[in-house]
Design brief:
34% of the residues lie in helices and 24% in strands. The chain has helices at 10-24, 26-36, 78-86, 110-122, 127-133, 135-141, and strands at 41-47, 54-60, 62-64, 67-72, 89-92, 99-105, 143-152.
Length: 183
Amino acid sequence: MDREVRPAGSWATAWRAWYRLLRLGGPAIAAFARRTGFGNLVVLRVSGRRSRRERSLPLGLLTVEGRRYVGHPNGDTAWTLNLAAAGRAVLECPGERPVAVRPVRLPAGRERDAVVRTSFRQHPFPGNALYRLSGAHVQAYGAFFRLEADEPAGSIGRGRRSRTRAPERPGPPGTTSPPSPLP
């Protein structure tokens, strides 16, 4: 029997309070993240699902086996719902050019479990301590996304979708065709 599981209890309350505190400092934290790259702090720009206005969010970026992930320990929130609805975002990492990404929601399984375990180690203090202490809660309720490279970043705009060219078909035998732009 499948039913929606909603975060409840003391850890759900603790995470809501923690994120309220972070939201108060949001613009300052985002500016700090852009300048310094404190810990694993990055900025994710995503369109609002209703307003379509671009939102900038300072988030902790997790890396597992070369792949990039973001998530929320308390399940879906406004930004995770916006990310899922938009289907793309722009990731700004200090010292790197912004890159357009496509989010892939992680279902229960090995990949998600590895990301949850990584959150205990890669987030700076006090976030890592909160993740470790609330590990069972994060495992049960957390919403996590793999960020896959999309296209060169710009403004994410309204409903703009990535356009990729179809790979070129090889010509008749004995002729050469230009290399495909796709890997």
